[in-house]
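Q: what does this look like with flavin mononucleotide bound?
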Amino acid sequence: MSIDTAPLFQPLRVGPLTLSHRVVMAPLTRMRATVPGCSPNEMNARYYGQRASQGGLIIAEASQVMPGGRPAPSTPGCHSDEQVAGWAGVVKAIHDKGGYVFLQLWHVGRLSHSSFQPDGQPPFAPSPIAIDGKTRTADGQLVPYETPREIPADAMPSYVEAYAQATRNAMRAGFDGVEIHGANGYLLEQFLQQRSNRRTDAWGGAVENRMRLLLDVTKAAAAVAGADRVGVRLSPFGVANGSGDDHPEPLYRDVIRALDPLGLAYLHLIEPRASGAGQREVDHQDVPSAAVMYRRDWRGPLIAAGNFKPDTATRMVAEGHADAIAFGRYFISNPDLPARIRQGSEFTPYHRPTFYSQGEEGYTDYPPMAA
Ligand SMILES: Cc1cc2nc3c(=O)[nH]c(=O)nc-3n(C[C@H](O)[C@H](O)[C@H](O)COP(=O)(O)O)c2cc1C
């Protein structure tokens, strides 16, 4: 049965940009930057160019703001000149097709490993609490997560500055804006949540302290790029990478209300039914929608993500619960996803084993719709 997806194809203002439709490409880690150097390359530019559409918004994959902020050898960074040059090629491929692109900025905190730290010691995080589970070292061995080192209070400003510098670098590469990755159990969420933040200084304890790093980072990025070119991604109630808080509902309300007056480009909420990196096929569906829950706490554009299909995406926007919908996995396997949704065409299924593999397979070889 075909559905009328017209609500997804109305223009939307996001900061200074006017999007021509509301089908956003979600940030997707694909582990295909050049090693060593973590620099985006021509293959990455081709992949993103395939997914660009006139007036459409792409949020490019999580990119570390400093070398020790990465979880793997081949995630891209945005802290070196070589990386900026690589990103400029990606941006050009998207702009050449009339699309827009923000870069997602991250630091994975305790998800990293000593083999990625410049001094070879365990990674840094808010508190010395290890995640239960396993990770891979730089040379690919599967090992338990390490107990991280606590970031000293006097080092905190250097983290804020790293995000500011990455924003400067992103703007130099030509990005239309940056998205601060405050979701999925990474550094900024580790600070937000009690299970990973046991600090007793100005960066822990009360909610206003736990949200300080997210807010300072966001304000620093806004000071560089302009607030209307900075978005923030959050995953209230999400379960990813050891995340969790005992009181998520008021925590995220406070965070969103604190971000609201900054005049940001958008807020990007991952629905709690979606797992952090889309690892599971079908997630719990009986949880409330984060977008519905927090819509009234946020006055700017709201992007919702997580297990959307054309019918549910259309309904979210038509009913006013979100202004745009970000698609992840289906954007991997359908480079022309907005056009397919508009025309009611079938989706190509995605192939999970190539999400994080290498090379063109499962990356640049998904075909567009037959003409
Ligand atoms: C392969 C893969 C990589 C991902 N990488 C990121 C990432 O870099 N940053 C992020 O915020 N979310 C990441 N996610 C989560 C997606 O952005 C999205 O929230 C999730 O896949 C749910 O949306 P979907 O059901 O449309 O796929 C990733 C998901 C997948 C499947």
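The pocket of flavin mononucleotide is lined by residues 26-29, 61-62, 104, 181, 183-184, 233, 270, 274, 277-278, 305-308, 327-329, 355 (CB under 6 Å). The first strand starts at residue 12 and ends at 14.
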